[in-house]
Amino acid sequence: MKPALAGGVLAAALLLTACDKDMMMEPEAASPSLYQRLGEKPAITAVVDQFVANVAADARINQYFAGADIPRLKAMLVDQICEASGGPCVYKGGDMKSVHDGMGVTDEAFNALVGDLVAALDQFNVPEQEQSELLAVLGGMKGDIVES
């Protein structure tokens, strides 16, 4: 066999081998987002519903929400968590500093609120990894919420 022809046969064999789907390497799948791992919008909505119920029953902090439009609050919380966790939602509420200005939210009240959220996450068996990631994202807002 002539060298040029041998090279062509070799190249064709390599090409066919590379095209064999059993031999091809699959691209690595992207890791699911926090939003996906939380269960997407239906699961976030369920957690928010329980969270708001926990807050309503929490005498340490429920006075902060006495005049709130609860259906709107729930919708805003769902959108905020959805967006913050990498989901497709867009939070259209105000910035945390403006929304909480003048409310006198203390560290203790903020920590009680976080406790009520963790209790809701626990009720729905949200794994610790996802809880930690979500709390890290939301915890960044503390400086804009706590006034004293």
TrEMBL record:
Keywords: Heme, Iron, Metal-binding, Transport
Pfam families in the cross-refs: Bac_globin
Segments traversing the membrane: none
Keyword Iron: yes
PROSITE patterns: PROKAR_LIPOPROTEIN
Residues at which heme binds: 100
UniProt keyword Cytoplasm present: no
Domain of life of the source: Bacteria
Matching CDD domains: TrHb1_N
MF (Gene Ontology): heme binding; metal ion binding; oxygen binding
Protein name according to UniProt: Group 1 truncated hemoglobin
Organism whose genome encodes this protein: Pikeienuella piscinae
